Records
---
Amino acid sequence: MVLGRSKDKNVTSSVSLPVVDDDSRKPQLPVIALVGNPNAGKTTLFNQFSGLRAKTANFAGTTIDHRSARVKFNHGDAELLDLPGLYGLDAATPEEKVAQDVLLGRVEGMTQPDLVLLVIDATNLERNLYLAARTIELGLPTVVALNMWDLAQKLPTKINLDSLTKDLGVPVIPVSARTGDGIEQLRQAIDTSLEHYKPAIAPESLQECSSCCECPYAARFDWAEQVSDRCGVNNEHHTHGPMTEAIDRILTHPVIGIFAFFAVMAVVFILIFQIATYPMDMIEAGFGYAGAWVGSFLGEGDLKSLIVDGIIGGVGGVLVFLPQILILFFFLTLLEDTGYMARAAFVMDRLMRRVGLPGRAFVPMLSAHACAIPAIMSTKIIEDRRDRLVTILVLPLLTCSARLPVYVMLIALLFAGNAVYAGLAFTGAYSLGIIAALVMAFLFKKTILPGDTRPLVIELPSYRRPSIKTATLLTLDRAKLFVKKAGTIILVLSILLWAASTYPKMPEGGESAVAQQRIAQIEQQITQTTDETAVAEFNNQIEHIQAKEELAYSVAGRAGKIFEPVFRPLGFDWQINVGVLSSFAAREVIVSTLAIVYGVGEEVAEDGDRFAQVLDRQTREDGSRVFTTATSFSLLVFYVLAMQCLPTQAVTKREAGGWKWAFFQLGYMSVLAYGLALITYQTISFFS
Amino acid sequence: MSQTVSPTPAPDTPDLTGLTPMHQLKTHQVAEIKYVDASHDDIARLKSMGICQGRRIQLIQAGDPLILKVVGVRIGVSARLAKRVYAEPCCSSGKKC
């Protein structure tokens, strides 16, 4: 992205026209910063200008991402920057801080914007004028988009535009970002302003505020009230409609509100799991087809194995979760757009505070039940750094979708044919994750990250119809980001994992004596039959035995044996260890690894009950069963609590600001998983 | 959380006679904010949302957190913070302070 004109941070708006960096030969685009209160309709306006051309990137040196787009104006192109919502220039959250820094020209590699496009909600003028005062005082060329003009027209009092323009001292254009009315006029005003570069000059009445030493906030709010009065708006009428008040009586009720919240979330999650099935099946089938197609061009060997099993299989295995993540993100954006999410944070604050977390932490905690990655990314809404860190640290304890295949396999093993017990075991696994997250959050707040939760201050905006277009565009952006970010990490990991389970190669005839004997037996059986199906089945068995032997010979297999003493107290044998170790980067991999280790085909591995029957028959060298009740429960507890997801760790590093926290997260979760799995195994073994 | 002194020059012991902490207002009661005492970060948050000296507020829903209306917007505020905001209740009609 091309941003910034000059490296001189002290450059002020009144200095000159846009200048080009001396050391930069690239053409620099003028930058327009979109500024406004949260809920003023900034993003909808941004989408009106950008359409599908928007891209998402991080602000330099931060984890805050923002959307920007190259927009055509008559005099040339400009870069439109959608800044996080602001109430004033006294940042409370990291997002507000970065928006403020952009406006003040304090972000590395960026200078102050060439133009501020200030979005004001016309249905609540006085409220929005405080930020307008702070922005105009910056002295940057400013154009005001008086948004929601269509809705304001329906209110009993009408805004006198001439009076408002005079009071603000900058062009004011009434628009409706939702319908697109007035956008053309706004475009012209921006064009004129970019061409003439006219810095905003704060009107005299406003200048008095900044020099006022009593209370600059009160002075500006007084100014906002006066301006609002002068342009004919009586604030008493410009409040929430009766509809919002009536809905809020239910949704913010201390008891009903909490039930309503869980009901809303239950519906969202049911929809996610229902809708996501179709695209997930398509992705799975697509990658399967791609693997087979690509494989048909490659001869048998390591290259085919690398591309088909390592790359296509590995990346496909993670991308299959993309639909769930995106549908979740889409619904959360829609809910946010309606104004409901603020109510959710409000009602949950009372409950969450008891474990030392703010109400805002609840939405990431719910999202984590689909995937910890978007959940960790959404913790930016939490103002306090300690609150945010604690939330990030505990999020991966919550049961994400990738754990489901593992739960299905183990619970089928434990309670095959008993739906009630199986259901209870599922509930138990989910509950264990939630309880562990809350207890750990409480402990972290008492020990390494002590301090009170930041008190709640949250605007409860009027309810309104959400924009499907906005949610779709944001979700598409998010999809691109996820595929790019997670995709590259996953690609590297897939290749590494493939290498660990493939090399060193077993020499010809390197199988163990037991395996060689078994192969010889099967080969003899082949010679005794003429039935083609039986022959194919025997050949399959030989292939499985060889695959298992090859895995045992590889780095992963050897590591499984090395770790035997470590995991023996948990009831795991070396083969389970291979599964645990190979799923270090992505937990669901254990299902396919165990399928290889215990010599079953993929189609069996996907059928929980059939796979469980195969696993149930496995014995140790001494003839005892591998998957006893104690081992199965121990493995289940281990998978509820263990980190086992490298992409999450990469995101933790990014959002928490360092590998230190990612390693700490891995460390404490491993200790917790090991400890509780140990207690589970030893307790059940003792009693059975 | 560190207790920072308000950046604006304020009397050491403000006269709180006749003022009610915001969380003790009655539901739907209108009041004018006279004094805000909170840790530094939270003062800025409250104030930039309009909860500052001279603004009229109305308590919409009591409890913790509570809901109040200020500058035409409903804001959810933790009682922990609300009790640091002192307001002078207005006449029952709520029209003028």
---
Amino acid sequence: MNHLMIMPIVIPLLTGAFLLVMYRYNIGRQRSLGIGSCLLLVMFGIWAVVQAGVTDYTLYHLGNWQPPFGIVLVLDRLSATMLLLTALLSLFCVLYASRGSDREGSHFHALMQFQLMGINGAFLTGDLFNLFVFFEVLLIASYALLLHGGGRARSRAGLHYVIINLAGSALFLLALGILYGLTGTLNMADLARVIADAPEADLPLLKAASLLLMVVFGIKAALLPLLFWLPRAYSAASAPVAALFAIMTKVGFYAMVRVFLVVFGLDEGAPANETALAWLWPTALITLALGGIGVLGAASLRTLTAYLVIVSVGILLATLSRNDEQLLAASLFYLLHSTIMTAVFFLLADLIGRYRDQGYDRFSVISPLSHRWVLGSIFLVAGVSMASLPPFSGFVSKAWILQSSSRLPDYLWLWAAILVSGLLIIAALSRAGSGWFWRPQERTHKSEPGLDRGRTATVCVMLAISFALAVFAQPVMDYLEAAARLVYQPSGYVDAVLGDYVHQGGEGIE
Amino acid sequence: MELVIAITLGVLTSTGVYLILRARTFSVVLGLTLLSHGVNLFLFSMGRLTTASPAVIGLVEDYTDPLPQALVLTAIVISFSMTAFVVVLALKAAVELRSDHVDGEDPNEDRQ
């Protein structure tokens, strides 16, 4: 058993707990501990990606209890990719926050570590109830992070966010209760095995459970009727927190992939799945359209970015609902791109807002702007990448999605939604950019404040990653294709996790 | 016993949902509490309903399933802490926004 595998959960847990106990530490030490932990997580992320590339499934039995009785952590290419992405994103968020926004309230770095523990745990776990627990860990940390810094807007957005997520947790438990009552297990692999052999009479309840789970993950991922908390919450949060939240909606997407393609996907034809995916397709498309309209109608760059998150969720879920291996690989690539780019835009909104004399990031205010050329160039590059124009990762990912969806039925709906929302994004971003950088009010007095090199460099490095993703697209694509192939072989997952247990005929200790 | 449990679940859940849909934070918090009670009871009953059988193997012929009890224990702890958090948050929002409406302001206030 490889103990390195649990490190992505243990490191942030210990760091966070230590930071809580040592709350009298000066801010410099807190920052270096937070950054150090994130650096370690990046290293473990790289290890996980390499390890998952060598062995398809790496298992970790917590407390050495054998599945399906104990909780098992499963590392495959999909979870490894998500781990590395989370680690990189968190490193940049903590670096950006360390330039000052972590001082707005107390315990920022401790909360960040608990948030990372929850996210990493959700990506690694192979047990459905454990997934619920990690969801709660990441949620309670995110409640506190959203409110970090205080203020009326955050209280108001926080209230909505907390209430809808508490209702979501209740639904999650209901779904788990139904599944346990029917199958007597909550281990994902064992569930998949039992559900595949489930009698016809259980099918309506299984469908109910899968739809409940879709609602729960839909709240996390911001699927259409459940997304109205998102724009207010994300635009109220402080910039590094909002940037980290870019991964939170993807946790919902990841959970949907695991549950619908693995847990409910083993059965031939997967009847419990079809109902859920049939609901997902139209709602995801409308989510995508609504996101595009929101982008065009947003009054500030942060709100615009929040709607960009919704657009990305719409694309991811629409591709997921088509239930195709090639398309899933393409949408995983898009996930990498969109997570990094929405995070860049949240940070950029804060960065530019700081150098405008009035109005922060609101479009309606015309204001003098310092460092027009530097900030303008960064905004242009980020805009080109976000709008999926070449030569950045956005272009590669969207081209791949369009290409691999072209052989599926109904692909024209997807094409239309993606292309029109892309056009709306271009229009909104060019309007924002031209208003801010081409026609800023002339400054009449006072000298320009110096450019914050640390914050600017953080954003530039993130943009460079987006560019690198396009340059090294081929190896990344190969890796993601292998990841998607594994997801579409749920029997391999079940065999790897249950192993001997299945060969003994599924009879456990009595 | 099944009927009693089913009726209790139904009453808890429906009052919970009704209260969550109210406009004041206090009733929403109460609703969340009732809903989580209902959910916990539901989770507990998923181990099948029996009386006078402990969750210990070997003591008696028919033991009850201990797993839902462990699950519900976890769920109770989590929902308890979340309720505490949402109470504090609702108080904070009521003080800061000077309104206990869930949107932070009462849309009908001007009309009254």
---
Amino acid sequence: MIWLVFAALSTIGLLFVGLPLRRRSEMTSVMADTTPAVLLDQLDEVKRDLERGVISGAEATAAEQEIKRRILMQSRKTAQATKELTSGGRFAIVLSAMFVPAFAFGYYAVMGSPEIPGIAFSERTAERQETAKVADLTNQLYDRLTTDPSGGPSEGWMLLGQTYSRMGRFADAAEAFGIVAKRPEATSAVFSMLAEALISAEQGVVTPAAVTAIEHAMELDPSNPAAVFYKAVALRQKGDIAQAHDLLVRRLNNADSFYPWMESFVAEANRIGTEIGRAPISLANFAPMVNAPGPTQEDIENAQDLTVEERQAFIMSMVERLAARLQDEPDDLDGWMRLGNAYSVLGDREQAIVALERAEILLSEAPQNDPRRQTLKEALARMRQ
Amino acid sequence: MVRTAQSGEFIEGVDDQMTPEVGHFALALALALALVQSVLPILGAKRRNILWMQSARWSAFGQVLFVTVAFLALMQAFITSDFTVKNVVENSNSLKPMLYKVAGTWGSHEGSLLLWTLILTVFGAAVALFGSNIPQALKARTLSVQAWISVGFLTFMLFTSNPFDRVFPPPSDGQDLNPLLQDVGLAMHPPLLYFGYVGFSIVFSFAVAALIEGRVDAAWARWVRPWTLAAWMSLTAGIALGSWWAYYELGWGGWWFWDPVENVSFMPWLMGTALLHSAIVTEKRDAFKSWTILLAILTFSLSLLGTFVVRSGLLTSVHAFAVDPERGLYILGLLAVSIGGSLALFAWRAPMMEPGGLFKPISREAGLLVNNLILTTATGVVLFGTLYPLFYEAMTGGEKLSVGPPFFNAAFIPVMLPLVFAMGCGPFLSWKRADLPGVLQRLRFVALLAVLGTLAVWYLAEGGPVLGYLSLMLAFWLFMATVREWTMRIKLFEGPVSTSWRRASNLPRSAHGMTLAHAGLAVAMFGFIGSTVWKSEEIMFVQPGADISIGGFDVRFNGVERVRGPNYFADRGELTVSRDGKYLTDLFPERRTYPVAQSTTTESAIRSTLAGDLYASIANPASEDASTQGAWTLRILYEPLVNFIWIGSAMLVLGGGLSLSDRRLRVGAPRRKAAVTARVPAE
């Protein structure tokens, strides 16, 4: 539809340039006849001024003489200058007319956003109701938590904090996370969320309070990606760019599989890396994915102490657990890839292919440069041999 | 394409909602047409190709069509609060009253550029439409030059300041809640100002086209004058309206602050006024060609400077300019190309123009030359005062310096006063050579009246600066000399009234226009002088029950009450005004607080009469210590004659309008010989 409108507009634009081709001009006034007209008009004015007594007779005669002299000069000049008008050059007009839509479409192809609809405020009542509902529920939750004599369950406060974060109310979110952070059961994730809320509330500036939260999160779990990320941000703002870069790369190196957070790690590392002249890194170097065995190293070490049957049963139970979880969460791309890998280790080629094909479907929506595409292709090829 | 549906699903039926993109595409088409128009017609004029020259007409119409489509698309986005458009998000809000939503279309940097371009294309199309008597080659060249300006603005807009940038998903509401900017005067101010600025573009295009063509003559000047007048009128109205807004809305009680934003609109006005007069000489006497061309170029250059300098944020600080270097560099480039290019062309071609009619040192030509010189000097003074702080900041690496009213009052006013004197004599002078003793003889009586009038004021008023009295005397002089010239022309009191009436109706409208405009300036001067020299001001802490006397009025402060408005609450002061024990009126100045926008505004209360304005505003107590407990900061001003400023401005605009309506000046003006002979003498 939108392209039809564009096509119609372009046609109009094209016609505006092409129109002179059809209409032969009838109003070509040339200097020769217009300039004396102005001068004749002046002559007339002098006469009127004389009638009104604004100027004297002598003045009028002088003025008339001067104007007549100018008329004469003018007509002599135009006689010399008059050349034949030509009316060729139709091809240039056609070319220019074609240029108009070509330029507009060329520009629009690069700069336009035809995919974004315009949405009037009045049409967004559903959205506003949704927002109002969320706000209402949030307020209810807040009331329940604050009136709870035991201070409210930590899960409740975490939910409240996350909701506030999504609503952009970062200061409120930090307050909610802060309550859980004071409790003994606070995990590393609680502190990293607190840090994130504090930093967002300050438009990205890492405050001392945020640094404390980051430190706590790192103490509890040095591998918590969010904590590591904000630690790097803090280091960079302190000026320790090299250290920040090292920290990000080290954490990437320790990843056992692909996780969505790795993309922002790579982006951030490359962004700050350019400031100190480090070579850019690529996500493909850090995502082992299906090359990594399904069960972790730890699982296998544990399994080595078992008998053969027990070991087989253990691995099967792991795989079944994963498969069962994937029935509930069919969109877990990395899960399907791990499952496919596990089946291939177990030698169940058919099941492996089924799992990998599920992953392939999910992966079709991922960006073209997603490194998982390559690994999946190789794994499928191996299985189908 | 407008959907008013209240259907629950907001994402449903999005296909028919594409106006922002249509607007964007239309701008691209307008740019394409402008590109064609900037090349084909001017080549056609060179090669005398009639088809190519004529293409200008249609592409000018096309441009105005597509820019209008874009403008309406943006306006629709503002009216429906379409927050998928970034510009709407940043400059509007769903709660704004409809009028300000509409005005929001041109309230932002991007939107005002779009309005600028729209007016630019309207002027281009108007030349194409009404200029049927303009020689084809000149018209083609003029429209091509106009298209160059279009290309500059459209590319600037599309590549650095696109009004159709999108946001998805849209934020829940817009960000602009500024209550101060929600004012009718302010909503209408930019369009008028822009009409003035951009109107001068067509004069500029005519000038550049004439330089390229290498000929300027009486006919050229006559084609250019209506456009100059129209632009000058809009600019006058725009400046007056802006000043009126500042006076009534800002709550400072001043009407002109020599603020850079005001100065950049005042400079093209000064230059445009000079151009208006210079063009008369070119038309009547075939002289001042270089002057007229140069003034046309400079007037538009100053308009460009005004638009861009305000928009780039350069005035607030050089630093602000550096924040957005892409825009800043583009602006500098555009200014350099347009101003530098046209001046270079002028330097190259102007010497080739034939000299026009000769004149003696005492003549109307000489009088208008003085007018040109003084107005240009005055513009230079304002330009210096406006740009000097910027250069200073740039040179010293960030040190700030402010050039304020003291500089301008000391430098600008003495330059302008001789002009006012000359304005009184000028219309009496005849072309080529004039009889100065004779003119002064006729003005003896006027001079005497001016002195007497000033003495009367000196007797009535309690003192004042010498410069004030000198200015006042000149204002009297100008007013009465103007009236005298008019009565002489119509021979008032020299014969029967019916003769005068016939003569008055025989007089060309442009002559009446000149009288009205010159008298208007004198009237405005009374306002300038009265409200500056004899202004009284009191700022004090007051307790309820306090009495203040100012400008002959007795004002009693009755206290403050907390009142609620639709989206604000206010502290409203109550004042009772009386004179000589006689009750006159009550004044209710307010201090409004808008909690959502977290801002406060001052709503001053004014008792307005022709004699002067009594102006009251109120502010929160300065501090809450014991000495000011329960006290308020009250500011009361008495500004004598201040309303004469707006009356005088209106006379200036009306005078311009009268002159424009003169049929000899109408667009496509020159009458053919046949029409001349067939015409009745009445005009």
---
Amino acid sequence: MSKPVYITGLGLISAIGNNVSESLLAFEHHVSGVAAGKYLPTRYSDKFPLAEVKLSNEELALKTGLSPTLSRTILLSYIAAKEAISSFSIKQLQEYKLGFISANTVGGMDKSENFFIDYLKDEHNGHLRDIVNHDCGKPTDFVAKELGLKGFITTISTACSSSANAIMLGSRMIKAGKLDIVIAGGVDSLTRFTLNGFNSLMIVDDNQCRPLDQTRKGLNLGEGAAYVVLMNEKIAKAFSAPIYCELKGYCNTNDSHHQTALSDAGNGPYLAMQGALKMSNLNAKDIDYINMHGTGTQNNDASEGKAVERIFHPNYPKLSSTKSFTGHTLGASGAVEAVFSSLAIKNGLIYPNFNFTEAIESLNFSPEIKYQKGLPIRNVLSNSFGFGGNCTSLLFSKA
Amino acid sequence: MSVYINGIGNISAQHTVDKCILKNGIENISGNRYHCIEPDYSQFVDGKQIRRMSRVIKMGIASSTLAMREASLLSPQAIIVGTSLGCMEDTFSFLSKMVQYNEEMLSPTAFIHSTHNSIAAQIALLFQCQVYNSTYVHRNISFESALLDAMLLLEEGNVDNALIGGIDEITNTSFTIMNRLGHFKESKQVTPENFYHPGKGSVAGEGAAFFVLATTQSKSTYAKILSSQTFSFCDSQEIVASAKLMLAENHIDQLDLLLQGNNGDADDDAIFNEIADSIQMNERTLYFKHLCGEYGTASAFGMTIAAELLKNEITAKKFGYALAEKPNTILIYNQSKGIHHSLTLLAAC
Amino acid sequence: MDDLKEVLKKQIVEQLNLKDTKPEDIGDDQQLFVEGLGLDSIDVLELIVLLQQEYGIKLANAEEGPKIFQSINTIAAFIEANRK
């Protein structure tokens, strides 16, 4: 048996709050973060509702003391990473083998889009300061440097499972003894690039999204950042750190069916969930809650639902998709939902599915619709599936 | 446990596709932009599948196929790719159309393949691999991150082989922009003879180098990887100390060869030279970027050179290196602007 | 109508980058998906863009696609019926 890895810090910013406690209040008061777009400059502001972080770049800059010329991705990442380590002193953290493993899919695309408007007129045009943040490594580097997270640093980009994979790598490196403490998670900001991309796939709902619902028509795009602090038992004790839960299992598989769609049988999702269960030495009946990937697209929810059925039928655990509150935060979503899963265990929470009306005909389960707290939640599965068939399940357990 | 390199697929500015760099010697390149010498991709993917693939995806498919063929591996147990900039052509194509058509009438193909993990995903799709699949996108340590993940997987014992690769493409747009950012020397300044002449900036490169790593040696084995580590935001002394520790941990009293990523940029090369000096390897240091140019995953190309040198007696000369004898140990050191550094130690089998 | 079909075949080959297919090789009644020309769900989206770009016809729902794009004949008929 390998030594357990604990989650001892959480940081989060998304459409439902600028920190962890604000986000929990949104669930409790049943307020979704999906609304008419206000900050993303796009021709679709009136057409597609968005789950935006409710702060402009200038406000984010003011809040952080950073420059508003930085990419929104950097600003969001900084806020969530800072919250995650807020109960520790950087100096103390630096005494150990430290890792910062972040994930994103858009890098500084929000700025690159502006650069290209001028660049396409003449290749000598375009402010270079708008393109220097383009690559995905930049937000990781910037935040690591700014917060003093020196040590092992890398960035993962596997579409919508990116930050779940970052958390997985962090845990593996601790288990292998290569690192003592890892801050792992991810970020993505809303960009015209991703909105237009998903629109070209015709999977963006022009109303509030309805995950795990027969009437679902697509996803709402969101943005945000989330990080968890991972430690082994010895270090957690040394820090007297608050232990939220144990990251007990994880598995990454590939559906290898299609570049953007999951297989009807949900093979990748099935294998990922089974793998996480097997690693944890747990059975399906031990799972108390599943935080579904649940994007609200026809394909994802049908495929993921099928995989859940294959493992859990007829005894389904409570389950829901929090994307009905946060929108689909893409590369950040795995970490956003890892934060929710950790709190589900720590505080005995079940998150509601916003706007649910009708169960999916082909499936035998319905999501939870009420916020519940104080329940004995021992084990939580969190699913994250992305383009390229990339499927990851994380399994969190009571410590 | 040992990690062996059992197969290599390499598309670069050299004749590396069919390994004839061994027979024909090196391609001398001048100017500030290297292009890959590419194979006919139709021998690797059929027409129906290839029609949506951009160049970098085809490079990834072809080089991973070559690596697997050489290792006689039909299906890897893990696929891990490092790419510093991902699929530039598709990204810029979608971005340009979005701006030009004012966010209307956009077709999805370029968007679908603009995601950084689409190279690893297409490999999984082609070979029907439902196994671990990841993509690292961290600047000049993207490839080493993939390597480190693979070595960790092999160490964990759940798999006994993994396909890894370092891949980046340069497009007209990315070249133009990086040129404006001062990354490259002026074209007419660069000749094969003065590639390492100190100046400002380097030469744009690109390439795809894939490796089959395995825990068991085979007929096709090139070398074994003893250790690989990355370092970020640290000073030269830490790199030197880590390099010495790495050698000591692997019981290497005298390293045979230091293979460095010098690139002709005065600032970068000052750092490289300092490291070579500090570990007393000045006399036994070789470079590789005059063969492939500078790009985020150039160190993957460097590892193909190291593997060839460790395997083949005749290789050194053919690469233009005046080595007295075949090395048995090689340390690859790469860095960019003093921010991220990587050390990879290989040994002959 | 025949002219439209010839033009359509050229446009489809170009839009979908069907390098191994000549426009004249596509039969008017030939199935375009799965068993026929072997097109898939991404091609449906590409064809929707083609209809919008070349003929000003906007499809709101991708699910209508497969029915309309069964063959050159069905696409031509749809264009004739909806062209402004």
